[in-house]
Amino acid sequence: xxxxxxxxxxxxxxxxxxxxxxxxxxxxxxxxxxxxxxxxxxxxxxxxxxxxxxxxxxxxxxxxxxxxxxxxxxxxxxxxxxxxxxxxxxxxxxxxxxxxxxxxxxxxxxxxxxxxxxxxxxxxxxxxxxxxxxxxxxxxxxxxxxxxxxxxxxxxxxxxxxxxxxxxxxxxxxxxxxxxxxxxxxxxxxxxxxxxxxxxxxxxxxxxxxxxxxxxxxxxxxxxxxxxxxxxxxxxxxxxxxxxxxxxxxxxxxxxxxxxxxxxxxxxxxxxxxxxxxxxxxxxxxxxxxxxxxxxxxxxxxxxxxxxxxxxxxxxxxxxxxxxxxxxxxxxxxxxxxxxxxxxxxxxxxxxxxxxxxxxxxxxxxxxxxxxxxxxxxxxxxxxxxxxxxxxxxxxxxxxxxxxxxxxxxxxxxxxxxxxxxxxxxxxxxxxxxxxxxxxxxxxxxxxxxxxxxxxxxxxxxxxxxxxxxxxxxxxxxxxxxxxxxxxxxxxxxxxxxxxxxxxxxxxxxxxxxxxxxxxxxxxxxxxxxx
Length: 531
Fold this sequence. Notes:
With about 525 residues, the protein is of the alpha/beta class. It folds into four domains: about 5-180 and about 240-285, HUPs (Rossmann fold, 3-Layer(aba) Sandwich); about 295-370, no CATH class; about 380-435; about 445-525, no CATH class. The chain has 24 helices and 13 strands.
C-alpha cells in the first residue's frame, strides 16, 4: 500500500469525488475570491431553533458540516471554527401539547425563548433548557464546536455594528424582500422586530420612522401611540431571513449548509448579504428526510425517528453513515433502515484497511472517523445477529456470545467492542421490531422433501463445518429439487425456519447457530411446531 503522507493525501483529495472534498474545494474558491487572510479562522456555522429539543436533523447538519470541515483541513492549513448558533431570541409562537404547565406557557407566547419560564422548573428559561440539551447532545457525539446564543450576541453588542449597517441600508434591504411577500404583508413588513419595553414581547409591527444618527427605529403600538427603541443592545431582533444574512456578516461565516426547503431563503439572505457589502458563505442544499410513506418528516406530525430512538438500536457511526450517503437525495428515515445502515457501516469498515489511499478518503468511514477509522474484524453482520436472537430466543448478551465464540474462536467482548455493542442493539431491535412481525408457515409441496434432505445432510456434517461448506450443500439441495428461481428455495427456508420473507446467508446462520441447534429447528419446522 502507498505510504500516506500529508502531501500525498492532499494531492489525492484534490481529485476526490467524495462530496465533502467537493464542498471543501468550493469553500477554498470562495476564500480566494474574498481574499480572506490565511491566518484568519475559516468559520463554519450550523443553526438550531430551541423551540424544541435537538432532533435527528440537527445531528445531520452538524455531522455533515463537520465532514466538510475535516475535508477542508486536508486541503488547507487555514485554522477553522465551527459555530453552533441557537436562535434563542426568536419569539415563542406555539405551545407543544406534550409540555407541562400549559397555562404558564400559553401566557408566555410572544416572549423571546430565553424569557419563557422553564416549564420543568430546572433552568432559568425554556430557551436555556433546550440550549443545554443541544450542547449535551453535541458533546455526546464528540463534535468540536463553539456555542453561540442569539440572545447573548444581541444583548452583548456583538451584532451592533452590523445591525446599524442594516438600519443604514434599510431601503435597499426592503426592496430585496418586498417582492417575495404578499400584498398585505408588504404594508407592515419591517426587518426589525422591536422587543416591547412594556411586555417584553417580540413584535411584528410597522416601523414609522428611522433615526440613523441615533441608531433607533420608531414603531406604532396597537393603541396608536409611538415608541422609539435602539436597534442595538438587544432592543430589537431581525426577521429571520435578514437575521441570517446579518449573522453571516457579523460572524464572518464562510460555510453553512441548509435543507432544500430553504433554497429560496438562502438566495434571499445571500442578496441581503451583498447589500451589506459582503459575499455570502459557501454551502449546499441537502434533501429532506421522508417517512415510511414518503411524506416529509415533521416534528409537529411526529412521523420521524428521534435521535434517541436510533441510538437505542444502533451505534452513532451507523447514523453518521446514513447522513454521509447521498445528502442531495431524499431518503426515507424510519426504523427499518437501521439494520441496513449498520451492516453497510460494517462493510465499509471492513474494506478500509485493504484500500489504497484514493479509495480510503472516498470511503465513508474516513469521513465518519476524521481519517482514523477503528480497526476491528467483524465476523458477523447485524442482520445475522438479529436472526440469531430470534432462533435462540436470547435475551442477554451472554447467550449470544456463547454462539459467537464458537463461530469465531478468539472473539470476545473485550477484543471486539463494536461487535459487543451490536449484540446489545440486536436484542433491543429484535424485541421491538422483528419479533412482532414474525409469521411462520409449515413447509409445503416439494419444500418438505428438500428440507428433509437438508436435515439429512446436516446429520452427516461435522459440527465444525464451515459456513461455505454448508452453503454449498444448501445450493445443491435447491438445484436437486428444481427450485426455479433458486431464491424460492431460500425464501422457503426463511419463511419456515425464521418466520420472515427475507433473511441471512443460510450457511452463515447455521454455522453461527450451530449444526445441532439448526437440526432441532428444522425438525420443529417439519412437524409444524413453529407455526
